[in-house]
Design a protein that fits this description.
Layout: E1 3-6, H1 12-25, H2 36-45, E2 53-59, E3 65-74, E4 83-91, H3 100-114, E5 120-121, H4 129-138
Parallel strand pairs: 4-5
Antiparallel strand pairs: 1-2, 2-3, 3-4
Length: 152
């Protein structure tokens, strides 16, 4: 049985391999790994009530962390209420196909509803076939292409 709950400070050791796996999936490992200060800042934000960044984890009946989801609320020029960006979603390879990813997405939907938010959105790489198979079941692809440019 999979349960989703808010992340806790005591989850750090179990969260770190999931975070590392997520980053490795997107090519951020070894020489291209995120600087440790970014991970430390991200972790701290989860527990800072003044931050709009939130984290949930999926756990099994033994309390083992199976996956993570990080999301944040922000303003939009096309809505009065804030919108929710589901930024990071990752399940451990042995847990895939057991419903953890879907449970994490549904938990973000529930948190957004509770916060008065009507839109949850996210992005993924076009090559993420396994993720997209799930996403096509739980959301609508709106056809947008993402561009990015670091100005520093």
């Amino acid at each position: 049985m999979i349960q989703v709950r808010p992340i806790q400070p005591t989850d750090r050791a179990a969260w770190q391999p999931l975070w590392d796996g997520y980053n490795a999936f997107y090519g951020r490992e070894g020489e291209t790994a995120l600087p440790a200060r970014i991970t430390e800042s991200t972790w701290a934000r989860f527990f800072d009530a003044g931050e709009p960044v939130h984290a949930l984890v999926a756990v099994d009946e033994h309390g083992t962390l199976l996956g993570l989801v990080h999301y944040l609320y922000h303003r939009s020029t096309t809505r009065i209420e804030p919108t929710c960006y589901l930024q990071d979603l990752f399940t451990a390879p042995p847990a895939r196909g057991r419903g953890a990813g879907r449970a994490l997405i549904e938990a973000v939907y529930a948190a957004a509803r509770e916060a008065g938010v009507k839109r949850v959105y996210w992005q993924t790489q076009t090559t993420n076939a396994a993720g997209r198979a799930l996403y096509d079941q739980v959301a609508q692809h709106l056809g947008f292409i993402v561009y990015a440019h670091d100005v520093a």
